[in-house]
């Protein structure tokens, strides 16, 4: 794990102070403390001094949202993405900007590009120092220590990823990892009893791995798993698909749509028909992968719902409203295309016969 540099005024493990904390320490009402922070009149010099001392003692970073709302100008939200070249993150950013605009926010976006965490730290602290009223982090490879330090300075929400055990006070929005059941349900309903999974490592993609791990356990429990193959981005999948097919696999469920298309291309190089010889499905279902011309069977991640929930949650935080800690898990929808079909009539290898598995239908 990369060590995160300690910057000035970045206490570790402390929750960010709120205007309520300032008011309580100063012995004044929240509205009085807010008027002092906003530079408004109507507060006695004695109370102004009390509030200022409390702000110093608590290292309070006032949310700019109140000032911006008062002047009717747009407030600024920071959006920290993992990549800008990825269709997933590009679609998420577009949905986030549209939903933020509805609430009167401007959005400043930066990307990690999978740089060392020292660079993530500097980028996020830059957002905080530029008076972002709140920051949404959509980069699951940012270290927990960095998340903790930034969250001590400015309201922060994680989106597109599961929560971090070491930061239980940081709320998150993510796709429900158990929605992988919809794809299992689909291929099992087509008669497949020998199913393989393709995935990146948990380090490469922690959020995808949470879903893949759940699917692995579900398939293994029901005797349906032939293999879980950990692959690398942009890897030639010809040998992987060949080995899976020779082992009796009839359906491959992939970690994302790019991988599914790579697997379909590998099958074509091997002279295999999709879906007659091998059914292949992806995950994410975002443009352009959801286009009917491709006909890819996939599961559409609810990107707009995630963006809307993230904006709503960060808006509550920057307004200093109470927010339940923990996460919001969202459901998407199955898109059935031409890349999955009935299982070929072959006998799977020993250990993958599957027995009688009939998972409940999605949404049941």
How would you describe the overall organization of this protein?
This protein is α/β, with parallel strands linked by helices. The chain folds into three domains: 19-60, no CATH class; 68-170 and 305-330, Rossmann fold, CATH 3.40.50.2300; 178-297, Rossmann fold (3-Layer(aba) Sandwich), CATH 3.40.50. Helix content is 38%, strand content 15%. The chain contains twelve helices and twelve strands. The chain has helices at residues 19-26, 30-38, 45-58, 64-71, 87-102, 117-129, 144-151, 181-189, 206-221, 238-246, 257-269, 303-318, and strands at residues 75-81, 105-111, 134-138, 156-159, 172-175, 195-199, 225-230, 251-254, 279-281, 298-300, 327-330, 333-335. The chain has a six-stranded parallel beta sheet, sandwiched between helices. β6 (195-199), α9 (206-221) and β7 (225-230) form a beta-alpha-beta unit. Residues 1-13, 64-73 and 347-364 have low confidence and may be disordered.
Q: Quick one: CATH superfamily of the largest domain? A: Response regulator
How does the overall form come out from the CA principal axes? elongated
Mean pLDDT level: 84
Strand adjacency order, main sheet? 2-1-3-4-5-11
């Amino acid at each position: 794990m990369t060590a995160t540099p300690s910057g000035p005024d970045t206490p570790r493990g402390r929750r960010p102070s709120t205007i309520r904390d300032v008011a309580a320490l100063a012995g004044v009402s929240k509205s009085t403390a807010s008027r002092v922070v906003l530079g408004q009149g109507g507060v006695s010099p004695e109370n102004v001094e009390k509030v200022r001392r409390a702000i110093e003692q608590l290292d309070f970073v006032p949310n700019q949202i109140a000032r911006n709302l008062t002047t009717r100008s747009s407030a600024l939200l920071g959006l920290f993405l993992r990549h800008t070249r990825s269709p997933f993150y590009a679609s998420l950013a577009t949905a986030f900007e549209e939903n933020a605009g509805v609430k009167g926010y401007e959005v400043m976006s930066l990307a990690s590009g999978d740089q060392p965490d020292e660079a993530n730290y500097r980028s996020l602290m830059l957002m905080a120092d530029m008076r972002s009223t709140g920051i949404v982090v959509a980069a699951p490879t940012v270290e927990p220590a960095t998340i903790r330090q930034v969250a001590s300075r400015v309201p922060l929400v994680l989106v597109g990823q599961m929560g971090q055990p070491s930061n239980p006070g940081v709320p998150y929005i993510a796709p429900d990892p158990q929605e992988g059941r919809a794809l299992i349900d689909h291929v099992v309903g087509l008669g497949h009893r020998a199913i393989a999974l393709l995935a990146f490592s948990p380090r490469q993609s922690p959020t995808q791995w949470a879903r893949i791990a759940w699917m692995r356990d579900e398939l293994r429990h029901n005797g349906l798993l032939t293999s879980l193959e950990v692959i690398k981005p942009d890897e030639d999948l010809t040998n992987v698909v060949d080995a899976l097919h020779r082992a009796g696999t009839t359906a491959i469920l992939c970690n994302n749509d790019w991988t599914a298309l790579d697997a379909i291309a590998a099958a074509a190089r091997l002279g295999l028909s999709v879906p007659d010889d091998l059914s292949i499905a992806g995950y994410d279902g975002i443009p352009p992968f959801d286009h009917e011309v491709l006909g890819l069977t996939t599961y559409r991640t609810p990107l707009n719902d995630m963006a809307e929930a993230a904006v709503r949650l960060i808006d509550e935080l920057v307004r200093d409203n109470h927010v339940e800690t923990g996460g919001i898990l969202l459901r998407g929808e199955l898109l059935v295309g031409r890349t999955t079909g009935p299982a070929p009539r072959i006998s799977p290898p020993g250990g993958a016969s599957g027995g009688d598995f009939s998972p409940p239908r999605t949404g049941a």
